[in-house]
Write a structure and sequence with these properties.
The complex is a heterodimer of chains A (750) and B (358). Chain A has 34 helices and 10 strands. Chain A has 750 residues and is of the alpha/beta class. Among the domains of chain A are: 199 residues; 78 residues; 84 residues, no CATH class. In chain A, a hairpin with a 6-residue loop joins β3 and β4. Chain B has 16 helices and 11 strands. The chains are: A alpha/beta (750), B alpha/beta (358). Chain B: InterPro entries: ATPase_dyneun-rel_AAA, CbbQ/NirQ/NorQ/GpvN, P-loop_NTPase.
Chain lengths: 750, 358
């Protein structure tokens, strides 16, 4: 009976090549691969055509998918090579490591302990971050004169052509020497339990009378797994101390991307150059020239002229560089330096193409359809079926009529996905007006499934996950405006269950917030939402209450908030005041309106308020019929009086006109006042003012400007407003009957 | 009589000798030391016999490795970048280290003719003897081809485009035809060209893509960090005190730090703490300018002051270095002075000094 421990580097191409040869040589009758035992069951899929790397095994808690971990595989991952070999030769393959369930349990205990500690320490003091464990290999690399452990490993083990048996022996010796040094790493605690479990699994295999056992594990673990028997006592103790757990886990395959391979996950740190590794794995010979040809092709595809001579010169330079750096192989860094200098004229930016399209690459894995799916994914697919939706790569437009039940449900579903940040659907503006029409453009790409799976821990259904997103964002929100937006998104997504959380959070922030601009920004939204109440059958009376409270806050502090603002802030304030005024008009509550106008009066009479705000307030009060003619005259001529600074008047006008010249065309009284004001200006002042006036007038509609110009030709309008004489045929009842319809049109739709 | 500025080969002869002695690598044909030793000469380091090599280029080692590796292939090297990033400096030193002789130099100007690159004629001889080899006036480039040395071309982009193109055959075929004599000069092993070029200046002639293709390009960037830049200014100024025999003390680090900070802030358009946005002057404010400001200040201090570098000595050349355009730059500088310099508690002296100048 023999046990062979083969230490590898996760995702190391050199390791994978050596492992392939070594497995052929050893012909084991069982292979044990590093990984939690729970993933053993899905190993059987490896070798099926539909399972194409990059893929990952996802292990998650069946009750709470939030607890999950990923084990990604590329075609050049040594683990993948080992599993493929086993399946091809029909020998058993098992995972050996600490069960994921126990890891979850441990993490849970740890976070609880932390919470307790934090509470003990009054949670104020920042804990020092845990020191990142220094990779023991990097210590070795440093003494050997290499910049990193990666570089050292690459130099010694990735590019060598020695026999596989000797390769694994030398890896073993290096690691053994390092471990005997007794170097401490913060991973030690974890490793003790993991290695104990690994040994236990090896023992089991041995007890099952397997003759030729191969263990494939991270190189660091190799020395600890050779002599299983000498650890028996220790291991029994260690395993006893592990927490008991009732967590049930599920393992499944999910598609992965090269980009994701470059992120850290279950098999430790990510790799920076999955595309380059893949190239090394699939290319049998002349890897450098093949790579440079690919680079040249990429440049050509991006319309950058690249000749064969470029390829030749890059290759020569890369080799010379390797020689200068004392390397017996050309690695990616020499390639990049040579490409930069020869093909890119020394320019770093062009190299980005290579990095994105080749070095990382955009490979995407596939998984068979019959593989167990995680709950969110399943719910997503059930929804697709029920709502008769298809995932297509070509863009498809959905015109929804919300009066139909199917479309209404689709809209709800789409809104929920939007909250999950799934970019499958983009809302387009409908061509027809009206609130019952929605247009969505759908375009599916397979990596969206991964984005969806990423959300898997939020909940088991699309609804629950979307709800969780809303609640999470709400808890982290610092501004009422943010929550108002969340509320607005929740209603079409029919997420009513947790609305009270949003509402109470608004209450909470409002009670301590002093940010009046935030209130101003949030209120129009909130008012719009509170009007939805009766349409969507949800109880929003609480919200009404809050709106009223917030309005009281605004009314008490708005005047002071307007004091002493500079031009930029005043313009912002002017926008918000106009919007809120509009919203209050919709709210349609006489009492609230009265209070609002009282506030506006307060602003009007306050000193130190920017003229643009005064102008705006003046206009709002005029439109709200809060002025008698006399008072209006007084205010306007006061504002336009000659002793005011010209730029003050210009700003006032900007606020007063609010981007529309209509009032100038129809109100002759006002027209005359402004006309007189303009004529009092001398030439210099007029030229000085012109840019400012132009700023407000240039926003007007073309026809408005034309009409104003024509009116200016006439000068001061003297005649009284013309009154249309009533026709004898006028039927008052008939005229009145259309008023409700007109009123309906005039009520702004949200 | 002593020369104003020694050549690199003279100034660093001891370092070069030691490098040659300690060299264990393979020496390419026509080189005087191995490529690894050339990189050590440029980047500095300690030899096996504990001899200290001073760094000539302070910055990314990778760039120097690419430059040296280029010369081991038969491709020409183009050092590219904005003015004052040390292109000519690197070109001189790399050539010195490889061949021991950096004197085969063609200075590129807008008025440079073809005969300065290929060959000219000694007209007296030409009239007397007709076209013969002895009537040829050999250019540095042709001499480099004949002896297997490295020719340097400074300011390649200043040379007019049609004259630039005469280089193409030399660089790709390594021959220079002389049709008048129906012969050609073939380059010996070791021949190569190191050119420097500006990418951001008035009146530059872009290289044709045929010519570009003959060069491996290394872009020399402005220093990455303030510490790196301070280091460059310090070492260069220290060496110029020696060569100019200024009696002043080696300037205090504080003054250098301040000048480097001013230059960096103006170049990047933002203060070091990232809080204030700044306008940048029209001209480039490079490390070379910073070096010359400190040098100027030192000579002022030496001849008119008490020998110690103060804010007053620096101010005039500092303003001169930054304000190149009397209208636009003056506004930039004044804004910088009032919004940044004035507010810094320990910069009062330099603020006052600059204010006095105007």
């Amino acid at each position: 009976m023999s046990i062979h421990i083969l230490g590898i580097r996760h995702h190391g191409v050199g390791s994978a090549k050596q492992l392939k040869n070594e497995l052929e040589r050893l012909q084991p009758d069982i292979i044990l691969v590093e990984g939690p035992p729970e993933i053993t069951e899905v190993f059987t899929y490896v070798g099926e055509k539909a399972l194409q790397p990059p893929v990952a095994i996802m292990v998650y808690n069946s009750v709470d998918p939030k607890e999950s971990t990923f084990y990604p595989f590329a075609s050049y991952s040594p683990e993948w090579v080992a599993i493929s070999h086993a399946n091809k030769n029909k020998i058993p393959v098992r995972a050996l490591d600490l069960p994921a369930a126990i890891s979850f349990e441990k993490a849970r205990i740890q976070s609880e302990n932390k919470k307790e500690e934090a509470e003990d320490a009054n949670s104020e003091i920042d804990k020092p971050l845990p020191i990142i464990p220094q990779d023991p290999i990097s210590i070795l690399a440093e003494t050997d004169g290499f910049s990193s452990g990666e570089a050292w490993w690459e130099h010694h083990f990735e590019y060598n052509t020695i026999e596989s048996e000797a390769h694994f022996k030398s890896v073993y010796h290096v690691m053994n020497a390092l471990r005997e040094e007794g170097l401490k790493s913060s991973l030690d605690d974890e490793n003790v339990a993991r290695e104990a479990y690994m040994r236990q699994i090896i023992t089991e295999a041995r007890n099952e009378m397997y003759e030729n056992i191969v263990v494939v594990c991270g190189a660091w673990h190799a020395p600890a797994l050779t002599d299983v028997d000498s650890y028996v006592k220790e291991d029994r103790k260690t395993l006893k101390q592990l927490p008991k757990t009732k967590i049930k886990t599920i393992a499944t395959w999910i598609p992965w991307t090269n980009k994701r391979l470059s992120m850290a996950s279950g098999y430790g740190a990510g790799i920076y150059s999955p595309g380059w590794y893949n190239h090394l794995w699939v290319t049998e010979e002349d890897t450098e020239i093949n790579w440079l040809t690919k680079v040249a092709e990429t440049f050509r595809a991006n319309k950058i002229d690249t000749s064969t001579a470029h390829v030749i010169e890059s290759f020569k330079l890369a080799r010379s560089l390797a020689a200068i750096r004392n390397k017996h192989f050309v690695s990616l860094s020499e390639m990049n330096d040579a490409i930069r200098s020869v093909m890119c004229m020394g320019d770093e930016i062009l190299l980005d193409y290579v990095n994105k399209e080749l070095i990382i690459g955009n490979a995407l894995g596939t998984v068979p359809n019959d593989i167990p799916k995680m709950p969110l994914q399943e719910d997503f697919e059930i929804n697709l079926k029920q709502l008769r939706l298809k995932l297509t790569a070509d863009p498809k437009i959905y015109q929804l009529d919300l009066r139909k039940e199917l479309d209404q449900n689709r809209s709800t579903f789409f809104h929920r996905l939007e909250l999950l940040n799934l970019n499958w659907l983009v809302r387009r503006s409908s061509r027809t007006k009206g609130t019952f029409k929605e247009t969505w453009e759908a375009q599916w790409s397979p990596d969206m499934m991964i984005a969806l799976i990423d959300n898997g821990f939020l909940g088991n259904t699309v609804e629950a996950a979307a709800q969780a997103v809303v609640v999470n964002e709400c808890i982290n929100a610092k501004k009422i405006e943010t929550i108002a937006t969340l509320l607005q998104k929740s209603i079409p997504a029919e997420l009513f269950e947790d609305l009270h959380i949003l509402i109470s959070r608004i209450n909470e922030i409002a009670s301590i917030s002093v940010d009046i601009l935030d209130l101003l920004k949030a209120l129009p939204n909130l008012i719009n939402i509170s009007r939805y109440g009766d349409v969507r059958n949800s109880d929003l009376s609480v919200l009404n209450h809050i709106v009223q409270q917030l309005l009281i806050k605004v009314n008490t502090s708005l005047a002071n908030a307007c004091y002493g603002l500079d031009e930029e802030n005043s313009s912002a304030m002017f926008e918000e005041i106009s919007k809120l005024n509009h919203a209050i008009g919709i709210y349609d509550d006489a009492e609230i309106e009265a209070e609002w106008f009282a506030t506006l009066h307060k602003i009007l009479h306050k000193d130190g308020v920017h003229p643009i705000i005064i102008g705006c307030v003046c206009r709002l009060l005029l439109d709200g019929q809060q002025f008698t003619d006399e008072v209006a005259d007084q205010h306007i001529s006061y504002a336009l009086s000659i002793n005011n600074l010209p730029e003050t008047v210009a700003a006032w006008l900007q606020g007063f006109l609010k981007g529309s010249g209509m009032i100038l065309i129809y109100d002759n009284r006002l027209w005359n006042l402004i006309y007189t004001w303009v004529s009092t200006l001398n030439k210099e002042t007029f030229i000085e003012l012109l840019p400012m006036l132009r700023r407000s007038f240039s926003n007007f509609e073309f026809s408005e400007r034309r009409q104003i110009g024509e009116k200016a030709k006439e000068g001061i309008i003297t005649e009284k407003t013309t009154k249309t004489t009533l026709d004898s045929n006028f039927d008052e009842d008939l005229a009145n009957s259309i008023l409700p319809t007109i009123a309906h049109f005039l009520t702004p739709q949200s | 009589m002593e020369t104003l500025r020694q050549s690199a080969a003279e100034q660093f002869s001891e370092e070069l000798e030691n490098l040659k002695k300690q060299d264990s690598g393979k020496v390419p044909a026509g080189w005087q030391m191995s490529p690894q030793s050339v990189v050590t000469y440029l980047m500095g380091g300690k030899l096996k016999n504990n001899f200290e090599i001073s760094p000539k280029y302070i910055g990314d080692r990778r760039l120097m490795e690419v430059a040296v590796a280029t010369l081991t292939t038969d491709r020409a090297l183009l050092l590219y970048g904005i003015p004052g990033t040390g292109k000519s400096w690197v070109s001189e030193h790399i050539t010195t280290a490889v061949t021991g002789d950096a004197s085969l130099l063609i200075q590129g100007t807008a008025g440079l003719g073809e005969e300065a690159i290929r060959y000219g004629w000694n007209y007296a001889k030409l009239l007397a003897e007709g076209p013969t080899e002895s009537a040829l006036v050999i250019t540095p480039l042709m001499r480099a081809m004949k002896t297997g040395a490295i020719a340097r071309i400074e300011e390649l982009t200043r040379i007019s485009a049609d004259v630039q193109d005469t280089l193409i055959t030399v660089l790709s075929e390594k021959i220079m035809p002389i049709p008048e004599l129906s012969m050609e000069v073939r380059a010996n092993k070791g021949f190569n060209v190191v050119a420097t070029a500006n990418n951001r200046d008035k009146g530059v002639n872009e290289l044709s893509s045929a010519l570009k293709r003959r060069f491996n390009t290394v872009i020399l960037p402005t220093p990455n960090t303030a510490a790196e830049e301070i280091n460059i200014v310090k070492t260069r100024v220290a060496s110029s005190i020696k060569s100019l025999e200024l009696p002043a003390e080696v300037p205090s680090l504080k003054e250098i730090e301040r000048i480097v900070q001013i230059f960096r802030e103006l170049r990047h358009g933002v203060t070091t703490d990232g809080r204030t946005k700044l306008k940048s002057p029209t001209s480039t404010v490079s490390t070379a300018e910073a070096i010359s400001v400190v040098n100027n200040g030192l000579s002022l201090a030496a001849h008119f002051g008490n020998g110690e570098l103060t804010a007053y000595d620096v101010a005039s050349s500092l303003v001169g270095a930054i304000v190149k355009d009397p209208v636009q730059d003056a506004v930039v500088w004044k804004e910088y002075l009032e919004t940044v310099v004035k507010t810094r508690e320990d910069w009062k002296d330099i603020y006052r000094a600059c204010k006095e100048i105007g």
